[in-house]
Amino acid sequence: MDKKDFPTAIEFYSKAISKYENFEDAYINRGICNMLLDSMQKGENDFSKVLSLNHAKNIAYLERGICRLFQKNYTGAISDFDIYIQLNPDTARAYYFRSKTKALMKDYSGALADANKSIQLDPTNPDAYTIRAGIRTELDNNADVESDYNKALALDSNYMEAMEGLARLYLMRMDIEAAFEIQKRAILLYPDFAWVYNLRGLISGMNGDSTGAHSDFNKALQLDSGYYETWMNLGHYYAAQGQFADAIQAYSKYIEHEPLNSKAYYVRGIAKSMMGENAQALTDLNKTIELEPGFAPAYLNRAHIYYSRYDYPHSLDNYNTFIRLEPDLPDGYLGRFHVYMVYRNNNAALEDITKALKLDPLNPKSYYLRGLLNSYENNYQEAMADFSKAIELMPDYAEAYFMRGCMLVDLKKYQAAMADLNKAIALDPEYYDAYHKRGTVYLLQGKKTEGCEDLYKAKDLGDPFADGLIRENCQ
User: Fold this and answer.
1) Nearest to residue 46, comparing CAs of 75, 9, 63, 55?
2) What is the DSSP string of 196-242?
3) pLDDT in tens, 190-204
4) Domain pair 1-89 / 228-293, same fold
5) Which CATH architecture fits 228-293?
């Protein structure tokens, strides 16, 4: 029957029901027509009516369960599928839909068991292999995912969901060429489907073609504004371009469709923080943690924001939580280092920066920070060694040259100090601290003209402390 004939069929069955109020098969058939027209609530009502007339009409449990699934009433759907499977334990279709429902409820182990049973009962259904591939992806059982998608495509070479899933798998593996081959074929078969352009947009972005990615994401949304994944990808595109207001708008569109996705609130929160909207960013990060309490990056970024707001107790609490969740990542120790420095707990700060260096011995910033701590403790040689290591790892590290220059000034090694200060200024011509320090060295060497010139330059760049030296030495 053509889809356009379903309304006529519904009208026919409705007339039959008006004449024979308890006509079970008419309700069943009308319910199926409503399902095929995506009128899931009407379909559910018809199947519920059948069951009120005859509990033994167990097909109604299966069909009502499907209606409930598509209305996101997952608990009700599972209840119906359980009853039907208990009465009909050899129906592959029932296990397939229960598998799909369990996967949406994130019960992936249960979903996998049902998918396996569905395939055992009917090994010719490409839907079952495709759903199992998706479940295995969530379970990180990637070795068998490709096999399932290929099995589905062997059964139906044009099976859209399997093509899409396999292309995503290739993208996840960074096999862009293989994903592109699927996309080329898919766009010929399904030129009016949003997912094809969304896929091509992802491929374009991974190939560095940001213009092409933007065009494809917009084309996908033009075809189907409800294809919400594209809103997320478009948000990522805008964020990468530094267009954070547009990114926030795109992420918000995604959240309208997926209000329980913790990662969506997280990326929107990051975009808001990049715009300086820290209060709103905290709201989103709080929501992320509410939805997914074990998502460590949310604690880390919340800690950063609290620190920027001088809320050091909350910052410390969040760094502690991040470290508990991710003890082998240096980021939490680096962040907590700063809080301990504010509290002047130098011993704890040293422990954290040492731990960060153990986890990532090639991070120049960690050496720089340990150098700062050593300089505060007047450990000049240790500080010099740390700043030198930072420079070795990052030769354009202006701050490290500046701090090493400051250490050399304190050691009265003015010639070496001037070389470092000159380098800091060459790397960052607006570094007013470096001009200030070099100016004082010139004055110590009796070079008043050069010293005053540097101090005036520092003042022009915003140095709040240059005036005092200028009054004392340059007027």
Assistant:
1) 63
2) HHHHHHHHHHHTT-HHHHHHHHHHHHHH-TT-THHHHHHHHHHHHTT
3) 999 999 999 999 999
4) yes
5) Alpha Horseshoe (1.25)
